[in-house]
Amino acid sequence: MTEITNTEQLKAYLGKLGNAKIDLNSLQLLAGGTANFVWRLLERSGKKIIIKHAEPYLKTAPGLSFSVDRMDFEHKAMTSVPPLLSPSSVVAVPEVYQYDSLSHVLMIEDGGARTLKEAYADPTLDTPTFGKALGRWLAGLHQRTKHTAIGDNQAAKSMYRFAYTHLAVALQKYDQDPSLAEQIDAQYGSLLQTDDECVCHGDFWPGNVLIDDQGRLSIVDWEMVRRGCGATDLGQFAAEAHLLDRFRGGKGLRTTFLEGYRGTGQLDNRFLKRVAIHMGVHLAFWPTRVSWGTETETKEIVKVGCELMKRALGQDESWLAGSLLNELQA
Known about the structure:
The N and C termini lie far apart (52 Å). Strand 7 and strand 8 (105-109) form a beta hairpin. This protein is α+β, with helices and mostly antiparallel strands. Helix content is 42%, strand content 16%. Helix 4 (127-144) packs parallel to helix 10 and helix 11 (269-285) packs antiparallel against helix 12. The chain has helices spanning 7-17, 69-80, 116-119, 127-144, 154-160, 162-165, 167-173, 178-187, 230-248, 253-262, 269-285, 295-313, and strands spanning 24-29, 37-43, 48-53, 57-58, 61-65, 91-92, 96-100, 105-109, 114-115, 198-200, 209-211, 217-219, 226-228. Residues 24-330 form the Protein kinase domain. It comes from Letharia columbiana.
């Protein structure tokens, strides 16, 4: 496999493709991201292309091995999922231009320079429209891929359980009962290996939604795609939307996103509890690794996540009303 970890190496790789394929004007290595090396290529025509390359390790932690087949899964998802979904003027998956499966180089349409997370504070951002559109789009993905084969992405399943297996340490640090985490991991974390209901994006959050200059949204970073339970996608985005609403301006992204998803069909109680469990795990764990506020505010968010898990585990069927998932009830 060709090593491509800097711009000069990428230029050499592109040069071997021939001038007929790439009319290079400029090439910029993009910041951010943990797994892959990513560039924005500008052709002389003005066309922008995103180039992603996978090495057999994490970009931000070269000592940690990470299978390069993640790029194979991303390519398969980005080419097989879009034809199954209803066309949308707001939400789409970037077009794939080219994929080199030997060098694990993926060239795709540029979906925009800002993520939804970065754009959240923009006063002109149409949060209600975007939230509902993303909820509807995600519901469509889950509803239309019940019989879609995507392969067995073992790395994705393992990484997705990380928050479950490390939750007890976070709870103990912030004065919550670690036995709750152990129960959640045993009862729900274990399901991540066997869930097989539909195609899940696998890392669905505002940081993987791009916004272009025309106000269109693109869903990117599909390397964690897997067959699983759609409640995990829903719970992850709802948790991150709540964090944005709580710490970045209260624009109601969580509410409109959940309304968009709920408006596409009936959700049974089993599914709703699974959403709550995953959202609770995310809120109770990730803010202890990624800073959103002060230590006091982090402790508060961990408690919110724990309360959501506890309510979902309870036998009272009215647990959903008044919770952070209130918009999902019938």
